[in-house]
Model the fold of this input.
Amino acid sequence: MKLRPNELLIYYNNKYSSHRKTRALAYSVADHVQERDFEHYKLTKLMWEELLELLQMNAKQLLNKADARYQTSIAHHDFDDNDWLEILVKNPDMIRAPIAIMDNEAILCERPKDVFRLSEHKKTLDTY
Done:
């Protein structure tokens, strides 16, 4: 994912108010914001792999375990990495929080204000 300097890319689900709040706050963090609503923008397995690498997380960690579909269809199953990627591809609406990327750093924004951590990181880098 190649972004311009001080450009923020946010993946979110417009159905959830906390995701919409995070998206709105993103505009105060970066000069340019690219929005990707999971409902209209489908990620491939390769794209998910890249995101997971940036986040330093695994696919299971991104999912909302309280979601009824997770509990009925996914919980208590033993999936391999490829299966988890397939679950992300087919069920992006089960992602528990927006994902924000800026300057080759990604964070899972579990609270809307978490998006500000990207600007704090940038300020730290700018002082060196």
About this structure: The chain has six helices and four strands. The longest strand covers residues 7-12.
